[in-house]
Amino acid sequence: MSEQLPEPSRCRSCRAEIRWGKTQNGKNLPVDAEPAQAGTVVLDSHGGVVYAGVLIGAQLASVRRSTRPLYEPHWINCPDAKTWRK
Ligand SMILES: [Zn+2]
């Protein structure tokens, strides 16, 4: 059972509401706080840690058919992404 996601934080550049998720590689991925139809990232909260799963292919298609929210990486929508994306 997934826990409730913590309160969103804010992007340091554009002040938009974002959420942070830890990827499989242990990196922190910022996503937009609100789910989006074009989203590719699922968030799962366990023990106070939010994990981000970046989906592709059949996995993504199957989540799109479900009611599970999908989030867009924030760098897609952040007007300042060029200044902080590495
Ligand atoms: Zn931003």
Could you explain the architecture of this structure?
The chain has 86 residues and is of the alpha+beta class. It has a domain at 14-35 and 44-74. Helices cover 20% and strands 29% of the residues. It has a three-stranded antiparallel sheet. A two-stranded antiparallel sheet has the order 4-5. The protein is globular and about 35 Å long. The mean pLDDT is 93. The protein binds zinc ion. Residues 11, 13-14, 16, 74, 78, 80 line the site of zinc ion (ZN).
Provide key terms for this protein.
three-stranded antiparallel sheet, single chain, globular, 86 residues, 3 helices, alpha+beta, binds zinc ion
At a glance:
This protein has 86 residues and is α+β, with helices and mostly antiparallel strands. It is built from 3 helices and 5 strands.
DSSP helical segment count:
3
- Which small molecules are bound? zinc ion
**Residues in β-strands, percent:** 25-35%
- Secondary-structure element pattern, one letter each: EEEEEHHH
Q: Which structural class best describes the helix and strand composition?
A: alpha+beta
In helices, the fraction of residues equals 10-25%
The backbone outline, from C-alpha atoms, is globular
Q: For the terminal residues, how far apart are their CA atoms?
A: 34 Å
Main pleated sheet: 3 strands, antiparallel
Catalogue the unreliable spans. none
Mean pLDDT: 93
Total strands: 5
Strand order within the widest beta sheet: 1-2-3
Rg over alpha carbons: 13 Å
